[in-house]
Amino acid sequence: MLFTLTDAFVNSQEWTLSRSVPELKVGIVGNLASGKSALVHRYLTGTYVQEESPEDMDAGGRFKKEIVVDGQSYLLLIRDEGGPPEAQFAMWVDAVIFVFSLEDEISFQTVYHYYSRMANYRNTSEIPMVLVGTQDAISSSNPRVIDDARARKLSNDLKRCTYYETCATYGLNVERVFQDVAQKIVATRKKQQLSIGPCKSLPNSPSHSSVCSAQVSAVHISQTSNGGGSLSDYSSSVPSTPSTSQKELRIDVPPTANTPTPVRKQSKRRSNLFTVSEPRRRLLLCFT
């Protein structure tokens, strides 16, 4: 049955969406009795598969579905893993859903084992995780064996991940599980972009960095040469043969028009030096 479902989705519109639609990669792990395949089937088709062959469940499946998160379209890639998570699976996923059956003790213990396998290949703090306990066929003849306290302890052991109890028979919480994990992926990506955003923006603003560099250089020169004076004070005291850095500084902060140039001062001093006073002229006339 799962094989037919896979063929149907390969030929459906979800597989032909534009590559420009961002992808959200979700991995689902659990043993054969966990009810994970029925969970995926209910989410994708809205129907419940009561019985599946072990061969189909062991093969797992690959599915896609278009969803909307915060007004943005995404392509949800669902990977129903047929066995324990391996390295390639661990590096592929953006988030993981661990599934066990509330009717089966072994499936509950398997989650611990699969989580340890994931931790060998990937830092589990990097990826969102959701824990799901399925109750598709609980009855008086098939009672619940995993109580709420044990299930919540397991969720705490899995980095305090969100815990849901679902029923694929009636669709209880099924849609909510996949919508929540998709939102967690989007939120994680936004958080990562914010943390690296300032570092990425620096190379894209050369003018900003050059201005900051010039200001730092100007302040450094002013404090060294002028005893910590202001930039405008320093610009008026630049010698007549400034260094390269000083020339650049004077270009950024030109001298005011009222400041006399050294040439004018020098020419004035030369004219006063060779002017003959009136008493000296009379003395010279007496000797002639």
UniProtKB/TrEMBL annotation:
Pfam families: Ras (PF00071). PANTHER family: ARF-GAP WITH GTPASE, ANK REPEAT AND PH DOMAIN-CONTAINING PROTEIN 1, CENTAURIN-GAMMA-1A. SMART domains: RAB, RAS, RHO. Residues 223-271 are annotated as: Disordered. This is ArfGAP with GTPase domain, ankyrin repeat and PH domain 1. InterPro entries: Arf-GAP_GTPase_ANK_PH, P-loop_NTPase, Small_GTPase. Coiled coil: none annotated. PROSITE patterns: RAB, RAS. GO terms for molecular function: GTP binding; GTPase activator activity; GTPase activity; zinc ion binding. The keyword Calcium does not apply. Keywords: Metal-binding, Nucleotide-binding, Zinc, Zinc-finger. Residues 231-245 have a biased composition (Low complexity).
